[in-house]
Amino acid sequence: MKKIILILLIFFLTGCTDYKELTDMAIVTNVAIDYKDDYKLIIQVLDNKENNNNVIIYESNGNTLEEAFRNISLECPKKLYLGHIQTFIVKDDVFKINASKFIDFILRNHEIEKDFNLLVTSNDIKDIMSIKTELINIPSESISKGITNSSVVKGISNIYFDNYLMILYDVGIDPVLPTIKIKDNNIVLNDELAIFRKDKLVSYLDKDSSFGYSILNDKASKSIITFKCDSNNYSSIEILSTKSNYKYINNSLIINLNLTATLKELNCNIDITNDNGINKLKNMFIDEIKRIINKTIDDEKKLNSDYLGIGRYLYKNDYNFYISNNMNNVIKNMNSKIIVDVTFTQKSSIKKGDEKY
């Protein structure tokens, strides 16, 4: 009984001590870095004054990231706490040199949790870190919620640092990272993905190729495909779910793609109360999907970055072929075949006959 009481006392006393120490710390929520002649660092720290929903912004420079953080510590009256970082925004210039120095700093710092959002921007990091909105007064929340909302609309998923690292050190695949920009005084995910060759940022995928990447990685749920349904009008279909797989046979990449989708807007004279009309609409939708995915594959060939992981597929499924061939040449010279199967669903019908798709 005495042992149990002693253990409980130690537990509660330790907890109180930690709590007091935490209140004396400056909790860092978001970090942004740039590099020219040296590192430029901007951090957002929660202002923990009572009834205060703002952050304090600190800036510094340093020859290393560690030095830049130490320089902020000289200015900040509290010890910086880095275990609550939500987003790490990196100016693209940092990754155009290579990501290894940034990665080295993160991995050596035991206090930083490795599950923060990792983002690339071409905007000035000072502008990004100072954004506030009418709905969300705290910049840290503005960044996080803006990313989440944009990811649903655009079909571009958040990528956490630990996921990025897993792909970076995997065999036969190059990483990608989402990009953010300022639009109408909000921070949103850009339509472009930053693509890497190993740890170096080499280019950006445009809107179509980025969306094709999301489809092929089964990350396009709730996204909209808009396509021409006649010479002047457009229709929109929402993707509800995707399932894709690759095969590589006789120098051909074969992609099987199964989609579940629902019609959101029809602005053309297509009768969807009969099978002919439904099939006509479905074929238009499939053609647009194939166009987007072919664009993604063509960019993979041009940019010499295996972000689709074709090398990884061959490494796992045909190791002898993988080690005996130059993957860059294999990808550049491969043919592709895309097989798309679509199932239309509708939770409710507007008029009689709509339940058929």
- State the helicity in percent bands: 25-40%
Structural class: alpha/beta
**Radius of gyration, taken over Cα atoms and rounded to an integer in Å:** 25 Å
Determine the mean pLDDT: 86
| Main sheet makeup | 9 strands, mixed
Proportion of residues in β-strands: 25-35%
Are there runs of 5+ residues with pLDDT below 50, and where?
Answer: 2-11, 15-20
Number of strands: 13
Per DSSP, the total helix count is 12
Choose one word for the global shape: globular
Overview of the structural elements:
With 357 residues, the chain is an alpha/beta fold. Helices cover 38% and strands 31% of the residues. The chain has twelve helices and 13 strands. The strands form two sheets. Strands 1, 2, 3, 4, 5, 6, 7, 8 and 9 form a nine-stranded mixed β-sheet that branches.
